[in-house]
């Protein structure tokens, strides 16, 4: 069923995710009846382009969501907590990109290729949460393997690009790389806690009890919830890398029944949202370079892991701003329009 034309709002339209939402709406040719762009007071006077038309960016104020069907929020958790209930009170459902509601059992957390049925629960709070950008593409790749053979244990290391930490982190890497290549001392880091140019930072989010980070904890919790696998054992290490766009995952897993590498490749080839990029003779495998601006999740280096029973290893890459954030959010808005509004 096609989505009826939606009256949409994009909150955080001037940010890294918000701008990508605009691009994804154009690329998917999502039926849009009207579009409202919202950001902070700082963006007063800013104009953004959509389908050749210039649209003004408006500040948030009461009543702004009236007449909108769906708002895609990408302005951080504090803004979402305050404004999502107000939007729903004005009759507008919210697709939220922040982490504010991802752990709320009354708010569905949805990847359309994995658990679309969960979207039905959005009416409890007029909200659906978009999962963490380190989770959505990973689960698009894992779902076909989980469905076929039951994943029991998952060990994952992430290689997350700076755009995952917002536009200011992109500027930090640009500034540092430019300074270092010109023999100058870079400015003190302002978004990622250490210099990221020519470096790696094995901390994303604050540390929690036991030594994990919030990011690593949400990879585990969100994977269990979305796959419907409460007993899944997960060990995650999340690392920020000096790449502008594209997150990668080194994945090692153990399944309940044996899955050969050939079977896994066949399943991945047919899975919605997945592109199998795996031809060793031709040295073809997923890389961020290949994933940028693609909505697909690239999977390759699929091989059996002989160090454990029923072990498999793979490498996954996706554009964090597209399938990791904007594309999934737009798909959710479309699904709301098709089925529920
Ligand atoms: N980057 C990713 O890969 C990614 C992936 C998934 C989820 N997310 C989440 O999406 C959200 C946005 O991330 P981002 O990377 O796009 O950040 P960003 O580039 O820093 O953009 C933030 C946006 O929020 C707006 N904003 C900030 N404070 C506001 C306020 N008080 N009222 C209204 N608008 C306000 C900003 O408007 P101004 O320009 O006016 O300041 C800007 O449009 C965050 O919650 C983030 O965790 C990001």
Automatic annotation (TrEMBL):
Residues 7-122 form the Semialdehyde dehydrogenase NAD-binding domain. The keyword Magnesium does not apply. It is an enzyme of class 1 (oxidoreductase). Keywords: Amino-acid biosynthesis, Diaminopimelate biosynthesis, Lysine biosynthesis, Methionine biosynthesis, NADP, Oxidoreductase, Threonine biosynthesis. The keyword Amino-acid biosynthesis applies. Phosphate binds at residue 102. It holds the Pfam family Semialdhyde_dhC. NADP(+) binds at residues 14-17, 42-43, 163-164, 320. It catalyses: L-aspartate 4-semialdehyde + phosphate + NADP(+) = 4-phospho-L-aspartate + NADPH + H(+). The active site is at residues 133, 247. It comes from the Bacteria. Pathway: Amino-acid biosynthesis; L-methionine biosynthesis via de novo pathway; L-homoserine from L-aspartate: step 2/3; Amino-acid biosynthesis; L-threonine biosynthesis; L-threonine from L-aspartate: step 2/5; Amino-acid biosynthesis; L-lysine biosynthesis via DAP pathway; (S)-tetrahydrodipicolinate from L-aspartate: step 2/4. Substrate binds at residues 160, 214, 240. Belongs to the aspartate-semialdehyde dehydrogenase family. Homodimer. This is Aspartate-semialdehyde dehydrogenase. It comes from Anaeromyxobacter paludicola.
């Amino acid at each position: 069923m096609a989505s009826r034309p939606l009256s949409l709002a994009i909150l955080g339209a001037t940010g890294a995710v918000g701008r990508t939402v605009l691009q994804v709406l154009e690329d998917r040719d999502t039926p849009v009846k009207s579009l409202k762009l919202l950001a902070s007071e700082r963006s007063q006077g800013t104009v953004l382009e959509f389908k050749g038309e210039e649209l003004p960016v408006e500040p948030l104020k009461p009543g702004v969501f009236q007449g909108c069907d769906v708002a895609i929020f990408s302005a951080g958790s504090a803004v979402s907590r305050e404004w999502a209930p107000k939007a729903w009170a004005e009759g507008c459902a919210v697709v939220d990109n922040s982490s504010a509601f991802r752990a709320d059992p009354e708010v569905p957390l949805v990847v359309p290729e994995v658990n679309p049925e969960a979207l039905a629960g959005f009416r409890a709070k007029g909200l659906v949460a978009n999962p963490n950008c380190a989770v959505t593409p990973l689960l698009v790749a894992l779902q076909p393997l989980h469905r076929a053979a039951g994943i029991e244990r998952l060990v994952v290391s992430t290689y997350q690009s700076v755009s995952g930490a917002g536009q200011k982190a992109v500027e930090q890497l640009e500034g540092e790389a430019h300074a270092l290549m010109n023999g100058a001392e870079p400015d003190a880091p302002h978004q990622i806690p250490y210099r990221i140019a020519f470096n790696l930072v094995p901390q994303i989010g604050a540390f929690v009890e036991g030594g994990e980070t919030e990011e690593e904890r949400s990879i585990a919790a969100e994977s269990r919830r979305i796959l419907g696998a409460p007993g899944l054992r997960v060990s995650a290490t999340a690392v920020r890398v000096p790449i502008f766009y594209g997150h990668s995952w080194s994945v090692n897993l153990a399944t309940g029944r044996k899955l050969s590498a050939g079977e896994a490749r066949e399943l991945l080839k047919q899975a919605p949202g997945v592109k199998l990029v795996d031809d060793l003779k031709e040295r073809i495998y997923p890389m961020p370079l290949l994933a940028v601006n693609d909505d697909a999740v690239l999977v390759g280096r699929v091989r059996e892991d002989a160090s454990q029973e029923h072990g498999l290893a793979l490498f996954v890459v996706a554009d964090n701003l597209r399938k990791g954030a904007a594309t999934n959010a737009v798909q959710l808005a479309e699904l709301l329009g098709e089925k529920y509004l």
